[in-house]
Fold Asparaginase.
Amino acid sequence: KGNKPIVISTWKEGINANKAAWQILSNKGKALDAVEAGVMVTENSINCCVGLGANPDRDGIVTLDASIMDENGNAGCVAALERIKHPISVARRVMEKTPHVMLVGEGAQKFAVSEGFPLEDQKLSADAEKAYSTWLKTANYKPVINIENRGHGPFAPVNLPDGSLNHDTIGMVALDAFGNLSGSCTTSGMGFKMRGRVGDSPIIGAGLFVDNEVGAATATGVGEEVIKICGTHLVVELMRQGLSPAEACKKAVERIVKKDSKKAKDNQVGFIAINKAGEHGAYCLQKGFNYAVCYANDHNQLIDSASWF
Ligand code: SD4
């Protein structure tokens, strides 16, 4: 009862990202190209949590994390990348053009520039500037649950030029017409994070994992919690043992709860997954997480994830 091709991605912004991915998948394109083009849409839009318009770290600097994986188990990642618009494409270049998996900070930026990526302005977007100056008043660091669905800044949702309120860190996984799986994940990380902090999104097996024999998964939410259980690797391994995507995501969330149920109550983590048959599923800690599922021209739909709490 699965679908092929299929693409799914995190949060409401996933709808727009899926459209770009579907364009490729529906024309017999590769899942790898689809997951790159898909999340580039989000990197290009002004939003709190992805791309150069996103919230900065505590020092006021936007630093970006991204990862990509193809059907052969190849992977590329960048972390703490500054002033580059499309970290997902730099991650892909790391995968395809270097003997390495991950480049960080200055070295990642240098590599991006050498590959022809333009060095963008350091300036914060107007929305991020506003959110940052509000944050500076208290300089209180506490991740806000479902921030991606509330808009800009951790305190008050702000209407964006396009009238939309929903923005996100984006993770995307896809199965193409040839039955191959790929995935991508890109983010500015937690808003107002410590300088140098890296989350789960650029870490293979944490924010993203693809195994072409079994399935693919990506994560969103408090990256520290995802890293500590090797979240998406766990989801894929659970699918290998026969669990459905939704069951596997639930088990991974359960692992987080079991470790520290008190802490889990205050955090959001969400997983989404697809398997080789094109079935999809999700699970999260707190209500309010959703994901976009697309497997036909007229089927690109936002689905509310079931939650532990
Ligand atoms: C991080 N997981 O840097 C990312 C943030 C995120 O929804 O996904 N927010 O921890």
